[in-house]
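Can anyone check this?
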Amino acid sequence: RFAIRHTLGRVDRKNARAATAIAVNSAYTAGRVRDVYGRTATVVAPGVDIETFHPTEASRGDYLLAVGALHPLKGMDFIVRSVSRLDEATRPRLVIVADRAREQERRRIDELARGEGVRLEIRQRVPEAELVELYGGARAVLVAAHREPLGLVALEAMACGTPVVAVADGGVPETVVNGVTGFLVPRDPAPFADRIRYLLDSPDEADAMGDRGRAHVVEHWTWQRSTDKLLQLLRATIEAP
């Protein structure tokens, strides 16, 4: 396994040195490319399908939503611990939508939720239309991944008009506008829970944040904008002497 990883590392470095241009999905990833390969990369961030991910007519449900694989790097344990700090009498349930799951991690998160008194529902591989409904009905979408290169979950949530509470890690701070479309906080359950509590206690402001999030995605994070930037980079690369 080490030999394979070492060989792939050499191939990566060779390809990075040989490339005329390198496109990456975030400024965070561009920094990693600079540190590891010594190359400057152009940010061509992916977009969101704003026709698919859109606000729904459904009213807000009594749940908080997290979306991502059940894997230690996704920070679901942190989210459970943060939600457990909310007042038990008014604490919403936590819904986790996972595209894939390690069975050991699923058991660990289940046991943690039971121990912390968090009502947890895990759904796997839900249809896209159902995911949109879940985004639109959530009181807030919670994001706590470690070193996520960009993180489309926050963008999809905002496209659906739902505010985000996220750990300021990886590329996520490039998507969430702190205090405008959601909140960016340190990896500390106390302030994370405080921001969730604020949204629960201030539904009008939460809705306003959701509206601003939708507008932010429509202006800055569409697939058309992403495609235009990629075409611009390709033309510049082809026309370079």
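Reply from J.R.: I decoded it. Residues 1-8 have pLDDT under 50 and may be disordered.
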